[in-house]
TrEMBL record:
GO molecular function: deoxyribonuclease V activity; magnesium ion binding; RNA endonuclease activity producing 5'-phosphomonoesters, hydrolytic mechanism; single-stranded RNA binding
Reactions catalysed, as given in the entry: Endonucleolytic cleavage at apurinic or apyrimidinic sites to products with a 5'-phosphate
Originating gene: nfi
Keywords from the named record: Cytoplasm, DNA damage, DNA repair, Endonuclease, Hydrolase, Magnesium, Metal-binding, Nuclease
Name of the protein described by the UniProt record: Endonuclease V
Organism whose genome encodes this protein: Pyrinomonas methylaliphatogenes
Cofactor needs: Mg(2+)
Amino acid sequence: MAHFQNLHSWALSPREAVELQRSLRGKVRIEPLGREIGTIAGADISFDKFSSTVYAGIVVLRLPSLEVIEEVGVRSEAQFPYVPGLLSFRETPPLLEAWAKLKCEPDAVMLDGQGIAHPRRVGIASHFGLIVDRPALGCAKSVLVGRYVEPEREPGSWTPLVHQGETVGAALRTKAGVQPVFVSPGHLIDLQGAIALTLRCCKASRVPEPTRLAHLLVNAVRRGERTIDELDRTPRQDSLFD
DNA sequence: GCGACAG
DNA sequence: ATCTTGTCGC
């Protein structure tokens, strides 16, 4: 069962959340990966319009095969509104509930959002990474802050995402003929590592597999096509051999 | 004051 | 994020 540290309270006002981000900023470590990544988790949440009920899920994949080795999901209540720049205060609590259900311990985690490509350099990937103390990266479908020039058409090509004169991420072409995704290191990984890891997670879609599969999982749970109970008691093939 | 604004 | 079907193209 994957665990995590209680760094702080989640009962905060938006104003207090901003102050907390300022204090967390100095704890974020952007550095080369410390070891090889053999498993990576994708995390995402889904919810009904006009409802505070949220479904959080995590899918763990093995690299380089991209086979799914574990899936967990939870239903929870959002306690914080969506505010640009404060996304982690809305999504992290439910995601941690799901994280706590994991039987395996992923070597890294990919979040649907930004890492340090954030106004105060503490996007959800940085915040989540700090709490679970694992290499974390953000792979977003759009930009929060920063400017970039369109990367070349070839998959794998990228251009720096620059904010206030600092390279905080990259516009990465994961597939020809589609918009780039925005990758940024979150914690315990650097930009080079985040880009390389994201590319290792790409198959046929614009969005890398961890995030894509986590998205499909939480939507299926929200629609009742899959149940949390089913997930709780369906051990993955691999876990039988662990 | 105006425009921007992850999910 | 979510609301929603078909449709154009490889």
